[in-house]
Protein 1
Amino acid sequence: MSKAQLEQLRSRFAEGRSALDTPDINQMRQGFEEMLTQFPPAPGVTFEQADLGGIPGRWCIPSQVADARVLLYLHGGGYMVGSSIAYGPMASQLASRLKARVLVPDYRLAPENPYPAALEDAVRVYRWLLDNGVSPRSLTLAGDSCGGGLTLATMVAVRDAGLPLPTGAAIMSAWADLEASSDSITSKAGEDPLLNGEDLRGMAGAYLGSASPRTPGASPVYANLAGLPPLLIQVGSAEILLDDSTRLAARAGAAGVKVRLEIWPEMFHVWHTYAPVLDEGAEALDDIAAFLDALYAREKESKTVTA
Amino acid sequence: MSKAQLEQLRSRFAEGRSALDTPDINQMRQGFEEMLTQFPPAPGVTFEQADLGGIPGRWCIPSQVADARVLLYLHGGGYMVGSSIAYGPMASQLASRLKARVLVPDYRLAPENPYPAALEDAVRVYRWLLDNGVSPRSLTLAGDSCGGGLTLATMVAVRDAGLPLPTGAAIMSAWADLEASSDSITSKAGEDPLLNGEDLRGMAGAYLGSASPRTPGASPVYANLAGLPPLLIQVGSAEILLDDSTRLAARAGAAGVKVRLEIWPEMFHVWHTYAPVLDEGAEALDDIAAFLDALYAREKESKTVTA
């Protein structure tokens, strides 16, 4: 990263925050969508609206797809904002790097639909993929921010339902403790240019409704993560959510999950969305693609051997 | 890993432990050396005894060396056992993968030479390398167990002395908290086939002498790690030292160090030494080589640009 890249971004953050600074939830959603679609999608992809067994969503299809690969992407936005439109650019960056069709479902949002609405929808979409011929060997999951937490909660629910798990998952800047009890909520408060504890607690309240902030399905730092497939966990060092990720890594690893945790110096919440103008954004996406690519390749190899 | 591989290893562990079960420190050192040299070195390497400004050591030289690369390897053995001979096979595995000359110094051991003898020797060897024309751009560090902790303590001392830091470091199953206060010391006690808290505390006492177990130079989980180069931290999920690594990763990352933590399911203390008969051992060494290789390559590129 050049210092110039980072300085330019800091001024954008202020704009972004003011776009979200409205009591009207629909205006907030629109502001978030405009912020995240400021960069065009990666070249060569096409988008297709989809009905995923009653849940709307959008496919992002790259010009080349390897081995029927599918990535199910659970978007961020504090369980309150974010959409398959907002995450078109992010989906396109992953689709083209991974040579996978990327599906971004529009799970139901809070406050209209509190926990467990988002989780139920994510699990239903996962099941819909299996029912529609997607092999778990060809399927990986990814998500950012609340979508990172939701990715883990979804895999736990999938495991508990006795369904086959995906081949791996990558999570970026996960929000995984809705109690906001990570040390970094305070220790990184002065460094984080995007989030603060108060906002987190507000969004947590809207999503949780009457559920406890320690509910494992909402706060997967408290979940039993045993049996999950290999995980890549990426987080920036300038995030109040840093320790949501270090705690997840420690907990998943102790439960016997293969874990890779990457901590990126100076990076801020979901810096990946700035990949078109920030070297580390592109590099972090490259790492995700390489990580999932190796898992797809290994599954394909083991299938060949056992076939 | 096949289950058969792991079962075979479990019987070796028992043999290994009994070889070390002697009150005679010289017998213990000999037993450790025999255990670690049970596999031959990787093909094509040669060894050369060296005098590193008064500290003995041994070079492992692969048939091909890329860009004058040097890896300084700080061996494990609880600061009490271990040697450049014992670590010949490990050095050879890294040398041939990384196309680097690997230097294993025989730093002074406890109980004859308590803290800070090992650290002083490691820093002297580092300085000797710089004085003898090794560019920090071509220099990386690695270490296992106490050598993992020593690798971090050495870099902190190098930083504080105002010397140029190496290009990166990889540590395996680090012993980084001589107070033995990691949760995993108890939570993984039933899973760890090699180490127990009592042994750790005994070795810590021998090394620390009169120093506090929280001395950052002996227990780098308590050190200020700011400014260190990129770190790869590998640990097994079946280790009582698991949380020495997760704590190091969290602390280094929070200080702005680029960190990759890998937690390997079912793996035990420094499983890398079994690379010739254990797939995960070879794969973990491959990861270290790829990680350091990318750093060497990046340094070379930046040198080309600034030249």
Protein 2
Amino acid sequence: MPVAFKAEMLQPVGAFKIRGAWHRLTALDAGTREKGVVAFSSGNHAQGVAWAAKRLGIPAVIVMPADAPKVKLDATLALGAEVVKYDRKTESREKIAAHLAHARGATLVPSFDDAWIIEGQGSIGIEAMTQSVEMKLPDPVHVIVPCGGGGLAAGITLALPESEITVVEPEGWDDMRRSLEAGWIEPVGENPPPTACDALQTPLVSPLTFDVLSRRGVTGLAVTEFEIREAQRWAARTLKLVVEPGGAAALAALLARKIEARPGTLVVLSGGNVDPDAYAQVLNSKD
Amino acid sequence: MPVAFKAEMLQPVGAFKIRGAWHRLTALDAGTREKGVVAFSSGNHAQGVAWAAKRLGIPAVIVMPADAPKVKLDATLALGAEVVKYDRKTESREKIAAHLAHARGATLVPSFDDAWIIEGQGSIGIEAMTQSVEMKLPDPVHVIVPCGGGGLAAGITLALPESEITVVEPEGWDDMRRSLEAGWIEPVGENPPPTACDALQTPLVSPLTFDVLSRRGVTGLAVTEFEIREAQRWAARTLKLVVEPGGAAALAALLARKIEARPGTLVVLSGGNVDPDAYAQVLNSKD
């Protein structure tokens, strides 16, 4: 069964996040732009905001966990952003970012809990539809999407009102799946298992993203860390693409046969910002 | 300095070779097609011919070195071709293929010494020109191309009559470079050094490819095995693309500053069919 892929690691910052960031920042007026933007992120959103800010001449401060992959920290700095590090276990990035934004009069750019961000990420859906027509492929009637906070999934859900959407999360971090089943927002449990998917470690989804997905009857799936590594290896071998763990979650669900491909199935590979050593280890092993 | 890349690992068989194979096979008449085709190849050409033959319903026999990367052997078999193995050190693939073609009345499909093959590979140049216009990039005025037998380079040279072309080979296998300097064809020396570039291990270029490059004043460069590995690592980290050693030769010359990028520089990444274990080792090391 042929399947289409959206290869978002080929974006300028190696992930889809420039879509929402660009859409949010271009909507700010001149006076607001001058005072700068603040974002908190495990990495890809940071780079997306830094990239958009640099292009628009907007000062950007990014609050990043001290243990974020070095490649993401370096890339954010290289894009000219100021980086403020915090301890993922003892500090609240929300508070640090809110404090910085208040002190500087800067605009906070959330990574998913924002209508502009969601709408920007949704450009994937519009693009996929256009490209399907151009390439004479079936319409994307079923989209499988990795899910952290749900911004990407919500954007695609809104952009493709007639498509079925399935969100995929790492086991133990499948709070969106549980929330959609329950009908209300459930957080990630205490002491969640370790996951290589740094981009999907969101402890709590937002009412905004949850509502979009919930009203459309979106369902979720969980994949194991092994299934994610297998998907990363398959992508390198077969697609010749470098996919980061979180970016490979939707593909993992398909390869593990937790979901069936059909004509018009579109798998979103959401990013490729791997830590080089960790990635080499994944390719180097069979488990 | 922005540089454009032609990412041929994203082709169906993971390399540019389907271009020439498709062009050659579609030009055969019905009676000729029925008797099948024979090709000899270290791997990517084999897959290209097998892929085109399968789509056109033509029986294909591929003569492959017994030590070709397993991923390439398997992929060729998976495409429905019959594979005949030979010993790279003691047997002549040319003789084996000629014998098979004669015995079956099949058509030999050379990997580079053929006008149709060269013309088909040249579609890269035409595509690059079209895409530059579409994407509002500078015209590809300077194309850097990995070189084995020279079919790809010759095709691009013919397709882009106003562009400068530079061919790149692994050190010790830089017979095209030496030939272009000398003004006549010089073979690879005896006991050439080991190279990871299985796709570029061509002991002798052909008058056809040499003449095209020579008449245009094309020049060549050699890169080291280390420079090639560095290019593979850079491509994974920065472009999120898996590039095989031979496919990374042109990029290696650029990164090693053996050639200067300028507006309109196009780097051909010619393939991505890596042996998974060897590739993991490259990513896992710094040398």
